[in-house]
Specification:
With about 260 residues, the protein is an alpha/beta fold. The protein has eight helices and seven strands.
């Protein structure tokens, strides 16, 4: 398998895109640390399932992505368990939809902390070990909103644009150390994050559920269909492979053509 003897940390991976990424990396032979909240029995089912299905080691970290000390502790725990962190996938994210004049300050702070600052803290903790071993892959989940904006998503759009710039910067800093740093920019992926923002968009725009899906979400994607978590996961696996070793500092779209216009 292409990632045998590698170890990966995937944040925000107890469901949705992150879980699909963790499973795809494990399928290629990587030991994985999943991270996130949820019912303990559901998380244990996924963790144990990864080990049983793919024959790798899988552990769970409940680290809170708003807490820098817990993020650093998560990376240290993975290094102790696996002997190093070779792959870091920054996937944790939340969303909130509101006009700027009504946008709650606490929601701004929370979104910036989880969607952006957590990426910095995880990179900061992971890069020294990657440099020491002369190999590393960092992939951060940005969004089509790292390239274009939508109304009522000020904090999310700001954070995702910033992930692009941070990834480019760290890519340049690590370019001679066998490390690649990229971000991927999915369009609308059918996940709980997207599904849960539908009621907020209904309220903000005065639309029905069907109108939000058909008139707000899917029109942005020329393919007129949602991206799947498995498609995103396959993209990440490719970026972690040796075939992608010259791809660094890139913001790569997987958005059904959304940002082509």
């Amino acid at each position: 398998m292409t990632l045998s003897n590698r170890a990966a940390v995937v944040t925000g991976s107890t469901s949705g895109i992150g879980l699909a990424i963790a499973r795809a990396l494990a399928k290629e032979g990587a030991n994985v640390m999943i991270n996130g909240f949820g019912k303990p029995e559901d998380i244990e089912k996924e963790r144990a399932g990864i080990e049983a299905e793919f024959g790798v080691k899988a552990i769970h970290s409940p680290a809170d992505m708003t807490k820098p000390d817990q993020i650093a502790g998560m990376i240290a725990e993975a290094e102790a368990a696996f002997g190093g962190v070779d792959i870091l996938v920054n996937n944790a994210g939340i969303q909130f939809v509101s006009p700027i004049e009504d946008f709650p300050i606490e929601k701004w702070d929370q979104i910036i902390a989880i969607n952006l600052s957590a990426v910095f803290h995880a990179m900061r903790a992971s890069v020294p070990g990657m440099k020491a071993r002369g190999w590393g892959r960092i992939v951060s989940t940005a969004s089509a909103h790292s390239k274009v904006a939508s109304p009522f998503k000020g904090a999310y759009v700001a954070a995702k644009h910033a992930i692009d710039g941070l990834s480019k910067t760290v890519a340049l800093e690590t370019a001679t150390h066998g490390i690649t740093v990229n971000c991927i920019s999915p369009g609308y992926v059918w996940t709980p994050l997207v599904e849960n923002q539908i009621p907020e968009t209904m309220k903000a725009r005065g639309l029905t559920r069907e109108q939000v899906i058909n008139d707000v979400l899917l029109p942005a994607q020329p393919t007129k269909s949602f991206v799947t978590p498995e498609e995103v996961a396959a993209f990440v696996v490719f970026l972690c492979s040796d075939a992608a070793k010259q791809i660094t500092g890139a913001n790569l779209s997987i958005d059904g053509g959304w940002t082509a216009a």
